[in-house]
């Protein structure tokens, strides 16, 4: 048996424990004739209701532990579960073919998933994966098979699976589960994002660990480097216990930075902000010492409803965050629906390339009533703290000007109504497209600030779908072309006299802190747990040294050369 495996370090930490091999229970699909069609239809309905109850329970636990933005994943699952077209198709199979509920559901789901999986539309292909997860639970409930409960595992368990769904990850009992490892996945997978929020060590993308292990083995998971050690010796365990303690001690030391500003050795003050999806997430932002919010994803407010939220409902949500963070800035992004996010009550057109289609600001400028309602709520909230309004998915100066006109119309309406708001509220844009990044100085004349969204900027610059596993290795923000786009955006912002932050995953990658600081990034906005480490890095940097790193890196031809130079610098100046 192999003793050493390598994967992707998806959520930091070090753990030693025993393997719980999580494999799907094999389902027996009874293909015999139905004795009573009405009974089979009732079994189908009861199974669906039980599944819905389970998903609602998981959603509630997720909201409590991780916040509404993570919980909103399950709203989409429930919407798929309640798809009446699918349900009617399964009922027809029961009636027309006189078959049992589980057989009809299995056939109906398989056909539906095959149809979706063969589409070019990445969003719909992802829905096929979600539907398979839901269908498995539904089939278990029809068949009377208990779904494996990951919340009741023995102490010091390490879950090893081919993959973990969001519902799997949300159920992990952090008192007993010390880490998880998967065959597939990457840093931007739902399970990886949730693991970071849960602060549980995770290594993903190992390839075949579920084929190597039988369950019950003792393993070490080093999620700082992506290394797995199977059946470790006592000496190896001692080494990793020391490494784990060092990581824990460092985390405790980082807590001492909570109330300190991120000021570099040469006196440069840098914003260290948090990203949130709902008012509940503010607690984690404040706990980790963030001095602002660089991204409030308002789409989760829209996704949690069965209709568009009213102006008053939006106002209350924004006001709660703004008051909690005052006097620090709260950057609130307007509705970013489309691409990989949909609303059950808003019919979006079927598109071959939804990430390049009718989404985000494009929808809002066509449906101006949506944007004006949100603008009015945001303006009203600005009376209670420091609000910055941010537009997503911008490609043209015309879009900026149209949005500015609508904002001014809303201001005029509120003045006429005698409603207070910040007359100087800032309007900024996300830098997510090469169209903006490489002409940033011109856009800087039209808006008040920029924020770089590296997730989309990377995929648009490289023409790589970040959700496609087959080409996921090509999705690389350290690619020199992406770094050139980031630097062009930062240089353009400063030439235009405005500030620029970053709110993509890259901002929380402490390997990249020195490079981004050297490029002149004014603020880093990230998952709350990443704030202390990035803050510490900045406090140990000198601008002259970091600028030198940038000069060297921008002359390099490959990602490998870039990373080697960054690692060399980090080892010398940050002790990493």
TrEMBL record:
Its main location: cytoplasm. GO terms for molecular function: kinase activity; metal ion binding; phosphoenolpyruvate-protein phosphotransferase activity. It is an enzyme of class 2 (transferase). Its cofactor is Mg(2+). Residues 154-226 form the PEP-utilising enzyme mobile domain. GO terms for cellular component: cytoplasm. Keywords: Cytoplasm, Kinase, Magnesium, Metal-binding, Phosphotransferase system, Sugar transport, Transferase, Transport. Pfam families: PEP-utilisers_N, PEP-utilizers, PEP-utilizers_C. Residues 6-127 form the Phosphotransferase system enzyme I N-terminal domain. Coiled coil: none annotated. Mg(2+) binds at residues 432, 456. One of its GO terms (biological process) is phosphoenolpyruvate-dependent sugar phosphotransferase system. It catalyses: L-histidyl-[protein] + phosphoenolpyruvate = N(pros)-phospho-L-histidyl-[protein] + pyruvate. Phosphoenolpyruvate binds at residues 297, 333, 455-456, 466. Its EC number is 2.7.3.9. Residues 252-541 form the PEP-utilising enzyme C-terminal domain. It is found in: Cytoplasm. The active site is at 190 (tele-phosphohistidine intermediate), 503 (proton donor). General (non sugar-specific) component of the phosphoenolpyruvate-dependent sugar phosphotransferase system (sugar PTS). This major carbohydrate active-transport system catalyzes the phosphorylation of incoming sugar substrates concomitantly with their translocation across the cell membrane. Enzyme I transfers the phosphoryl group from phosphoenolpyruvate (PEP) to the phosphoryl carrier protein (HPr). Belongs to the PEP-utilizing enzyme family. This is Phosphoenolpyruvate-protein phosphotransferase. It comes from Cetobacterium ceti.
